[in-house]
Amino acid sequence: MSHTVPAATAVAATTTVVVAPPADGTDEVRRRPGGARASDRFALVGALAGGVGATVLLFRYLLPLNGPLGFVVCSWLCFLGLYALLVAQDENGLAVRDRLATVVVHSLAALVVIALAFTVGYTLYQGKDALPHGNFYTQDMSEADSLTPLVVGGVKHALVGSLEQIGIALAITVPLGVSCAVFLSEVPGRLARFVRTVVEAMTALPSVVAGLFVYVVVVSVVHWQQCGLAAGCALSVMMLPIIIRAGDVVLRLVPASLKEASFALGAGRLRTVWQVVLPTARSGLTTAVILGTARGIGETSPVLLTSGYNKAFNGDPLHNPQVSLPLLVFTLVRLPSKWQISRGFGAAAVLMLLVLALFLTARLIGGRAPGELSRRQQKRRAGASARIATRNARRAGAVAASLALIAVGVLWGGTPQASAAAPYVSIDGAGSTWSSNAMDAWTTNVKQYGMTVNFNATGSSDGRTKFKNGTNDFDVSEIPYGITDDGVYEAPPSRHFAYMPIVAGGTSFMYNLKIDGHRVTTLRLSPDTIAKIFTGVITKWNDPVIAADNPSLTLPARQIVPVVRSDGSGTTAQLTTWLSKKETSLWNAYCVKAGRSSPCGVTSFYPLVNGQGFQSLGSSQSVSGFVAQDNNEGSITYVEYSYAVLTGYPVAKMLNVAGYYDGPTAANVAVALTKAQINSDLTQNLDQVYDNPDPRTYPLSSYSYMILPTAVEDKFTTAKGNTLSAFAYYFLCQGQQNADRLGYSPLPINLVKAALIQVKKIPGAEANTVNIAGCHNPTFSTDGTNTLARTAPYPPASDKKGGSGGTGGTGGQTASQQPGTSGGSTSGGTSGGGSATGGTGAGTNGTGGAGSSGSGSSGGTAGSSASQTGGGSTAGSTGGSGSGDPGLVGGGGSSGGGSTSGGNTVLANPVTIAASSDGTLQHVLMVVAGLLLVSIVVLPPVLAGRAARRRGVER
C-alpha cells in the first residue's frame, strides 16, 4: 500500500530555511564556543571568594577544624559548590556539568604544576650555597668531609658515573627494547601476547628487586666486584619494559596503508620495518627512550646495591665502586652537616639539568615528525636525499663532539693522581653509622697521600655480614661476632680476622623540645627516666619523673616520640647492653610486650610494641635528621654525640652514680672509659664504666672497632693490605688529633699501641714504625697517664642531683636559647680538654676533648707486668698469634692463633651481637626470592592465557 506525500510537505522537506535578520537591522552577536563572558568571570571569582570565606567561617567559628591542608581542601569543595550554583543561574544542567568538569581538570593541572614548581624551587633554594662554586662541578668529594666548607668538593665523580651508567643501560635497552617492540607490533600471535603481558608485569617491578637480581648474579654468583657496569645492568632491567611498552604503542599507530604500499612495491617485511615503520615512528620511539632514561637515571636502590659508594672520581665502569648523582644525593642529604646537605641538594639540581640536557639532545636527533622537511629541502626535494644523509651524519657527529668536549672539560685537571711513592690500591669497607662521621673525615684526609678508601655507613650488622661474606675488605662495628640475638646465633666468619679499636665516644640522647617557642638546651635525665622513655612507660614530657630531674623547667604536656633504629645497629646494641644490665626489670618487661623472650639481653634490632607511638628509622643519619626537623617537636633519639654536634641540636645530660648530670663531651667520655675492661681480643666490657664513681663520668661511653682481615682470603690481597695498614697508621695517630672536633674522644696511648700491633697482622702491611710522641693525641702524656681524663673539668654544683640545673648548653646548642633559667656560670670540655665558662644567663659547652684508657698494657713478655694507663688492673701476656706477633693487652691473639695470658686482667664476656644467619641460609633465601620473582612475573600471564583459551572454548 503506497502513501502520497503532500506537495507542500515535500517542498518544505527539501527547502533550506533562511532565518530572517532582526527587525532593527543589527547583526546577531554570536558567542564563540570556547569564549568566556563577563558573567563567567564573575561567577569564578565570586565562587572562589565565597569558598574561602565559608571555610574561614567553618574553621574559626562553627567546627573544631584546623590545619592548612584541611583548609585548602575544604575551600576547594566550597568553591565547587558555589560555582555550580552561580553557573546554574544562567545555564542549563549540561552546561553546569561541563563547567564543573573544566574547573576540576584545570585545578588538578594547576596542582601538578605547583607541585613541580615547588619541587624544583625547593631543590634550587636548598642547593643555592653550593651551586655558585665552580669547584662544585670540577671536583669530587675525596677531599671534603662534614667539616669542609663548600669551596672544596663537588659532584664531578657522580656526574660522570651517572653518564657512564645510563650510557651502558641505553646501549643494552635501546636495541633490545626497539627490537622487542617491533616484534610485538609486527608479529602478532600467542607468543607476542605472552611477551606483552610479561612486559606489562615488569613495569611494576620494584627497583630494589632489579638491583638485588643483578647483585646476586654479578656479585654473589659470578664473584665480580661492585662497579658501574653492574649498575648499568641493573638500570637496564628497570628501563627495558618502559621502552618496550611505549615503543609498542607508538609502532601500532603507524598507518597500515604505509606498510601496505611498501609491500605493494615489492619490499619485504624487514625492509618495510627498517625504511618505513621505524622512520615514521621515530619521534614516538625517541619519546619512549626518553621515558626509559628518565626512569633509570633517577634510581637509587639498584645503584646502591650494585655499584657501591665512592667519594673519589672513578672513570672506569669495569672496576671499583662508582657513585651516581641519585646515590650521592641520597647519601649527602641524610648527613647532619649543613654543608653536606647543601651539596646533596646541589647534586639534585645538577641531576635535573642533566635530564633536561638529555631530553633536548634526544629531541634534536630524533624529534622531527615523519615527512617534515626543512625549508631548503622543500626547495630542492628532488636531489636532497644524499645531502640529508650527509647533514644528519654531521649533526650527530657535532653532538658527539660537543659531548666529548664537555666531558673533557669536566675531567680536565680534576682526576686525582696516586702518589708515585705510595701506589695504593682502592679498598672498600662498610658498617657503623656511629663511627661514620669520623670515618668520613679520615677517608677524606688520606686522599692527599694517594689512598682511596671507600666506606659505606650501612650499619654495624650489615657491615659484619658483608665482611663475613667476603664482600668488603674491612668492617667498622661496635659489636663483634659470636653471641645469640633473639634466638639467632651469629657465628664468626670463616675468614681470619682481628679487632682493633679506632675511636671512643658517647651514645647521647638528642631531643627536640620547646617551651613557649624557645628551644630547651639543658634537659637532664636520670637512667631510670631514660629507660622508662624508651620502654613506653613515660609518654609525656611533663611527667613528674622528668620534672624531678629538671626542677628549673616547666615542661609542656607534649607527647614523647621515641625514635629508634629499624636496622641492625651497634648504637642499639650499646643502648640495650646498658638497659639489660642496669635497667633489667624494665627492659625485660618491655621485651615481653614486644613478643621477645625474657630475659631479653642485648640486641642490635630494637623491639617495637604496637600502639606505643615509637618511630623506627634506619641509620643514625635518619634518626638524627628526624629529630632535627622543627615539625617533629617532642621527639628524642639515641645517637653518637657527633650527630648532635654537627646537626646543632642539644643532648640530654645523664645522671651518673656520683649524683651529677653530665654530657657526653670528649673529656667526660675519657674519664668514664678509664674503667673499661679490655678483653684479650681487644673487645670491651663496660660494666664498670656504667658505675664509674667519678663525678665527671658520662655512663654510656664506649669504643668503636674495625674488623681487620689477617690472611689473604676471598678478594683480599696483599696490595689491599698495604693500603689498609697505611690508612690505619693514619687514623691511629694523626686522625685522633681532631676527634674531639667531630664529637668523638681520642684513643688513649695503651689502646693506640695495642692497635698498632693489630695492624701488623694485616697481610702486606707497611713496615711503618709510628712515632707515638709525634701523634699529638690530647690523651697522651710523658708518664703514660690519660691527660684528657686527668684535666677534665668537674661539673658545676647546679648539675648535682637536686640542684637547680638550667646552665650550660649541650651538643650543638648553647644555653643562650634556654627558656626559664636564671642564668649562671657553666663549664664544659673544650677542644683539647680545657674548659669554657659562660656569663650570667648563657653558658656554652665545648665539643672537644677525648680519650680514655682500658685495662692492661700495650704488651709485654710472658709473665711480666705492665702498668695500666688510667687505673685498673695490670696484665702481662704473650701474643701467641698465628704470625708470631708480640703480646696484646691482656693477652692477645687473633682468630689466626691462640694466646696465653698472665697477670690479673679482668676478662669479661665480649659485647657481641648477632645480625644474620650463616651463608647457607642466605643462599637458600636468595634462591627462594628468585623463584618468587619468577613466579610473580611469569604465572599471571600464563594463567590469564589459559583462562582466555578456556573462555574461547566455552563460547
Automatic annotation (TrEMBL):
This is Phosphate transport system permease protein PstA. It comes from Streptacidiphilus cavernicola. It comes from the Bacteria. The lineage of its organism: Bacteria, Bacillati, Actinomycetota, Actinomycetes, Kitasatosporales. Keywords: Cell membrane, Membrane, Phosphate transport, Transmembrane, Transmembrane helix, Transport. PANTHER family: PHOSPHATE TRANSPORT SYSTEM PERMEASE PROTEIN PSTA. InterPro entries: MetI-like, MetI-like_sf, PBP_domain, Phosphate_PstA, Phosphate_transprt_permease. Residues 776-903 are annotated as: Disordered. Part of the binding-protein-dependent transport system for phosphate; probably responsible for the translocation of the substrate across the membrane. Residues 803-812, 821-862, 869-901 have a biased composition (Gly residues). Residues 778-789 have a biased composition (Polar residues). Residues 159-366 form the ABC transmembrane type-1 domain. The chain crosses the membrane at residues 42-63, 69-88, 100-125, 166-185, 197-222, 345-366, 396-414, 924-945. CDD domains: PBP2_PstS, TM_PBP2. It is a multi-pass membrane protein. Belongs to the binding-protein-dependent transport system permease family. CysTW subfamily. It is found in: Cell membrane.
